[in-house]
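# nightly structure sweep
# worker-07 picked up a monomer target from the shared queue
# config: single-sequence mode, recycle default, output format = structure tokens
# input follows
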Amino acid sequence: MNPFYLIPHTPEAYFCDRAKETEDILSFLDNGSNVTLISPRRYGKTGLIYHVFDRLSARKNKPELFYVDIYATASVDDFIAVFAESIARVLKKESLIKSFLKFLGRIRPVVSQDPFSGEAKYSFTLDTDAERRYSLKLLLDYLEQRPAKVVVAIDEFQQIREYAGMSMEALLRTPAAKEEMKRYSHGITDFRLRLYWEKFKCIKICFPSVEEQREIADYIDKKCAEIDALIAKKETFLAELEAYKKSLIYEYVTGKKEVPQP
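# output follows
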């Protein structure tokens, strides 16, 4: 019998290491900060997310936890559907799900049942980027008005690079950026918030160090030079082929060469 768990969600008693990472993530979440986990594949990012969720679930005032796995998505529409499904999965109660669908209003999705898992599957008919932005905003607004604190984990986030059309990363970062600005602002109501320089300058933006920027620039220059060399070589080859084609046509048309008989 294998004593090791081979699934991402390892029970608390069997979860080892990542103690500092766990405490760091919990601290960031408690302070309302966004967190990004970056590592090579198969290093246990998903397991760490579940572990943090377990720790949060054990609290007296536990937040609502939404886990969104977008690995199987191929478009913005897929992302929105999977996001909606993750929300409905947490709500569970039929009355809450009905309230959720009512909140979505005019973009109400078609709901079906997964034949294998039995869970609800959502599909949206979104024809324009404006409709997609509006749909995602509705989902975020719904989470914003939940009575408990909300934590959303989006797993396999690199998948958004495969989405065609609108910039999904920009779409997702917009609400996050607004929240970061709001966190440092002061005012008695949302529409009277003020963000002063002393607070604005405290907002951290992720930039690589100067050394890393130089490394990135050098690498790009090197690769661009290699590509330019390949293009030049290809263009020379094509020019030679074009000259050979013209020479071949001229020789057969002028009779310098005869067409071979079958």
